[in-house]
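Trying the structure run again after the queue cleared.
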Amino acid sequence: VGDQVLSATDVIGNHYQGESTLTIMVVISLDNVHRRLHSGSYVQRGAALQTLKSVTGGEPLLEEVFARLSDQHPDVRRTAVEMLLHIGERGDQRVLSALAKRCQDSDHEVQFSAVEALPQLAEKGDIGALTAASQALRSGLGHLLRRSLLH
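Done. Tokens:
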């Protein structure tokens, strides 16, 4: 308040008794989240991605999610696919390409998440999305794709 920095446990009302509008600048450090994204533990990497769901961060956040799409653990890859659904923009070809690649993932849950996300982010008539969906059909994911498209 004023030039005073409040701690995380401070209550603003204890420091401000004015009747006019109070403007607050909040600075959030994502250092811990960044460290957890690079953790040796897939649980920590997945939890860090979950934390990022509440953050809108544009390109840097998107790049972190793209990097996690090739994580060694399928739970982290699945969470990254789900994150793309939250932060990806409809029609973004980089996002659609990443999802199409995950439709061929070695893990069926990752595949299903990608198949489910693809039609939600693709523009109507998108040939790339259609091709990825067709490949998913040929690779035995037809039942997953039909389920996704019928919801």
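The chain has a mean pLDDT of 78. Worth checking whether this holds up in the mutant runs.
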